[in-house]
Amino acid sequence: MYSEQVSILQGSVMLDFAATSRSIEIEGSLIHYNDVGQGEILFTFHGGGPGANAWDNTKWNLEALAQRFRVILMDLPGYGRSHHVEALDDESLESMHARVIGAFMDKLAIHRAHFYGTSMSAGSVIVFAHKHPDRVSRIVLKTPSVGPNLLSPTPPDGIMALLAFAEDPTRANMDRMMRLFVPKPGLLTEQMIEDRFNSAIAARGFPPPKKATTGFGDFRSLLPGLTSPILVLWGHQDRMVPLEGALTVLALIPNVQIHLWGGGTGHFIEFEHTEDFNELVIGFISKDRQP
Asked: ∠ CA(45), CA(12), CA(6), 5° rounding?
């Protein structure tokens, strides 16, 4: 289901997917994560497209991040190897995720951490930070979807491709979706497409939840209340979450920095600009300053 080709040397021990794979039970559901490195805790999540999982989302950056942080790569409910968690009455997807993240931290006796949320999971991190500001240190958000687009087509063509795969999960539809995730010619590999396809098919085998969440939320009203320092990352050719969202977060988040990439950069900045991503994230989280 995952590409397990990435391994890192931490001290004298070689770590890879299998060596770092863990799971715990939350509300009767199995939640999967990988636990790598030592130091301050950094949670990393993933987007919401078919086949998304935390390992494949962050594996390009893991060697650099794990040299500085204890990185917990968490599969949210229904993604990767995590099973679904039943929603409460009238609970949004992101609120359910935030509830599970809190329970996960409690089980691992983690009071406070840094957070990296991307695309869909950025909304989950925003909700968690709004509800539990005392448990959040610094936040990195990559292409956060915080509300409706005003200038760009809705839904974007990347989301249309994502929905097409959900309705008809073929290898051809996954190929089309992934080429919109990484639009710059020559970057996307067949192995990336295959890994994502296999992960999507495996996740479809999980028993569905009995009660669905209420869907994606509009987080614009929450942004002014965020108290953590926040770094936002965006590619100007993002076909999933259009660049205009950067203006929204710039206007509404009190303590925010934004880094934009041009040159055909798409949705997978952590893969397309690995060294830049690592340098920015490590420098931002490690910087010693107060909000």
From this structure: 40
Q: Distances in Å between the alpha carbon of 13 and those of 8, 9, 10, 39, 244?
A: 8, 6, 6, 17, 44
60 with 177: CB under 8 angstroms?
no
- The SS3 of residue 34 is strand
3-state secondary structure of 284: helix
Of 52, 279, 88, 10, residue with least CA distance to 174? 52
Residues 72/6/24/140 CA torsion (nearest 10 deg):
20
Q: Name the band, by pLDDT with cuts 50, 70 and 90, for residue 5.
A: very low
Active site residues: 267
Note the pLDDT tens digit of each residue in 48-71. 999 999 999 999 999 999 999 999
Contacts of 133 (CB under 8 A, 6+ apart): 226, 227, 228
Rg of the Cα trace of the chain?
18
Contact 184, 237 (CB under 8 A): yes
Quick check: 202 and 1 in contact, CB under 8 A? Answer: yes
Helix (H, G, I), strand (E, B) or coil at 18: helix
Stretch 207-232: mean pLDDT, rounded? 89
- CA separation for the pair 14, 280 (Å, rounded): 26
Rounded CA-CA distance 239/224 in Å is 26
C-alpha 30 chain-centroid distance: 19
Residue reference for tokens 């687009």: 149
Domains of the chain and CATH, by start: 8-286 (3.40.50.1820)
**Whose CA is closest to 147, among 75, 204, 221?**
221
Cα Dmax for the chain: 52
pLDDT at 81 over 50: yes
Q: CB count, 10 Å around CB of 97? A: 27
pTM: 0.93
Q: Please give the Cα distance from 98 to 274 (Å, whole number).
A: 28
